[in-house]
Amino acid sequence: MANKSRPKKTRGIFYKKYVYGVTEDVYEDSNGDLWIKGDDNIDHIVDNSIKNTKPNKDNSIDKTAGLRLPLEIIIEILKLTSNPYCTNHLVLCRAIYWMFLKNIYEYPELKSKNLESFLDVISGDDAAMVKEIDDDLIINKDKKKVNSKLALKRKFQLMVKCLDLSSVVQNGKNSYMSKLLRRTSNSLEIFISSQSAFGAAPLVSLRACNELKILDLRLVSESVNLVELFKSIESLPQLEQLCFPRSSLICDEYEFKWPEKLWYLRLQGGITDSFAINVRLPQTITTLEFAHCPNLTDEGLNYILSNIGINLNRLSIQYPMPKIGEKGADKSFYLCPNLKYFFIDIGYISWELLNEENLVFLEEFDRPLKSIIIESTGYMGMCEKLTPNDITVAVDEGRLPCLEKLGLSAMLGWDFKSDDMEDMVSELFHHDIQVFKI
After folding, report:
1. Alpha carbon 22 to chain centroid distance?
2. Is residue 4 part of a domain?
3. Nearest-10 crossing angle of helices 71-79, 13-20
């Protein structure tokens, strides 16, 4: 049971003076309410600050007239508080309410428990939000009240810019995916799929998302037809980042129109050597990742790198890639001389990655490679494929002149207290290279 004798919590005079711009003498009464001294009529600073406000030309009252600071500054101050979307802030005035609501719906934090209610709101099926629209007196050019559900759709559907469903757990609900994409197609810029199906209906709905910049399907667990996926992304002129689904079907068609602004590509699923050889990847790609490609061999990998490797700044080859072999990525530095970031699993490289033939000296400019991350799954026998001495020699002979960071997996099997490791760390420290364990 609540203790009624306990003093009411308030934010204090100085906080309200700072936020609302109060310059007069103020005091708080026993109920914690804030009042102004000095006027003939004493008014409550929040509830009654608009009592004496002069009406606008259309005889309407400006509900923000009682706030002395500009609305934009007040909103920025509230955003910096520990809980910017609390109820006390939202009820200050309708303008702040809708501004904060817009921020929430631009990047909603979607979970399994709130996905259905979110879909109801942007579909105009939420009764509480419909009442809010009714109270807002939305009118059209003929001064007649418009349909509240239609107004609700227009208000919320154009707010959503990001749909991150990576935290949503659902089983095969293609209808949800399709409906979400259709409702938000006019404003959606980022779409990250959940670990569920992504069938024909979502692929068709995807074609209407003309503002989409990031399409991430890496978590999709069921098979996706790559041919249909390519037909969908052909109609996305703003697309910049694309992640293939890891369970995509083998693609036997190769004539596609890639988005002109695409610079990030993650290849997964049904990628074969035939696909790698016949498909012409766009030269705009600067970041390329490989993962979960069970049918791709070192031949297909090197063919892709020989075509666009000169443009790459970042290259990542992740586990599992079972068919590229134990030395399948050894030519990465040779085929990609402009790399700045390189992520590799130890299972796909050997000491030859850093020899003079693959890590050749560049006459026109210093090799710009700044970061190398070597991961490992912990399989036995991997520690001998590449040793600390191989790295020490490569750095000492100037083959990595711009290297700044070297990350080594704790699963490599190296003895991090050995003399070879100490020599490597000492040599890299001498060249201002950071060494860290991951």
Report:
1. 40
2. yes
3. 140
pLDDT at 226 over 50: yes
Using DSSP bridges, classify how beta strands 314-317 and 34-36 pair: parallel, antiparallel or unpaired: unpaired
Task: Supply the pLDDT for residue 153.
Answer: 56
More confident position, 388 or 100: 388
Host H or E run for residue 267: strand 264-267
3-state secondary structure of 30: coil
163 sits in which H/E element: strand 162-164
Alpha carbons 25 and 159: distance in angstroms, whole number:
41
Decide if 65 is inside a domain. yes
pLDDT tens-digit series, residues 141-163: 444 444 555 555 566 767 889 99
> Scanning the structure block, which residue is given the tokens 């079907």?
249
Answer for the pair 251, 226: CB distance below 8 angstroms, yes or no: yes
d(CA 425, CA 420): 9
Query: Which pair of tokens denotes residue 381?
Result: 């026998």
Written as one letter, the residue type at 335 is L
Q: Which of 111-115, 227-231, 251-255, 419-423 is least confident? A: 251-255
Instruction: For residues 120 and 418, give the distance between their C-alpha atoms in angstroms, rounded to a whole number.
Output: 61
Give the number of domains in the chain.
1
> Looking at the domain assignment, is residue 14 inside a domain?
yes
Count of residues making up the chain = 438
Domain that holds residue 44: 1-69
Pull the structure tokens for residue 15: 């906080």
| CA torsion, ordered 19, 24, 30, 33, to nearest 10 deg | -40
Of the CA atoms within 13 Å of residue 7, those in its CB half-sphere come to 9
Residue 69 has pLDDT above 50, yes or no: yes
Give bridge partners of residue 164 from the DSSP assignment: 192
Quick one: average pLDDT of 412-420? Answer: 87
Q: Give Cα separations from 426 to 82, 388, 401, 417 (angstroms).
A: 45, 11, 16, 13
**Model pLDDT, residue 10:** 52
Average pLDDT, the chain: 79
47 found inside a domain = yes
What pLDDT is stored for residue 125 in this prediction?
A: 59
Q: How confident is the model at residue 324 (pLDDT cuts 50, 70, 90)?
A: very high
Other CB atoms closer than 10 Å to residue 122's CB: what's the count? 23
